Structure formats: structure tokens, C-alpha cells
Amino acid sequence: xxxxxxxxxxxxxxxxxxxxxxxxxxxxxxxxxxxxxxxxxxxxxxxxxxxxxxxxxxxxxxxxxxxxxxxxxxxxxxxxxxxxxxxxxxxxxxxxxxxxxxxxxxxxxxxxxxxx
Length: 116
Known about the structure:
CATH topology: Transferase(Phosphotransferase), domain 1
Pfam family, one: Pkinase
GO molecular function, one term: ATP binding
Helix content: 40-55%
Organism: Xenopus tropicalis
Strand content: under 5%
Order of helices and strands: HHHHHH
Protein name: RAC-alpha serine/threonine-protein kinase-like
Keywords: ATP-binding, Kinase, Nucleotide-binding, Serine/threonine-protein kinase, Transferase
CATH superfamily: Transferase(Phosphotransferase) domain 1
Number of domains: 1
Oligomer: single chain
């Protein structure tokens, strides 16, 4: 959860950009950006600490994560005047064919088969 969820009664879609940052962090580093032994400890880390970025993390990955995990919702990547365009233009997404994605022309890398 984004820091403002703990401190404000009203929040905006900036919390969704934060969630994207958490997902990208976890997918790349295979751990959560904030962890702890209790919900209270995790909440305090979310509110007051910065995630750990290994020195070997490429600059373009650090760039997107620091932007999306900005504790200030007004300055968070995606939440400024530029909106989603600011996220889409980051080097992290270099080569992404956004229009083809919008038109659903990009095939997934794999499709999971399952039965209910």
C-alpha cells in the first residue's frame, strides 16, 4: 500500500502507480521493497524508509523504481501533469510498442493452461 493510504482519508490514482512500482521491484529483485515481521513494521518502513537498490541494479531500472516509489504522491511518476506518458517514456520501457499493446496485437510470452 502507498504511504498516503495510511495517512490520508482521500487519495488518488497515485496509489496505483505506487503499486506498479512494488510489482516491478518484486519481479526484478524477487523480494518486496518493504518487509518486516509485522504489519506495523512494514507500514513504518513504507512511510519512512527507502527501498534498498543493489549497486548492480541498472540505472534505467533504478530510475523507474525511484519514480514510482516516490513517497510524495504529487511527485510520483505517473501522478504529475504528464500522467501515464511520463511512465511510458522511461528508458525501462524502451522498445515497448504501446499502440500495438493498446490494440491487443502483442502476443503474451506464454499462456497458462488451467482447468477449473
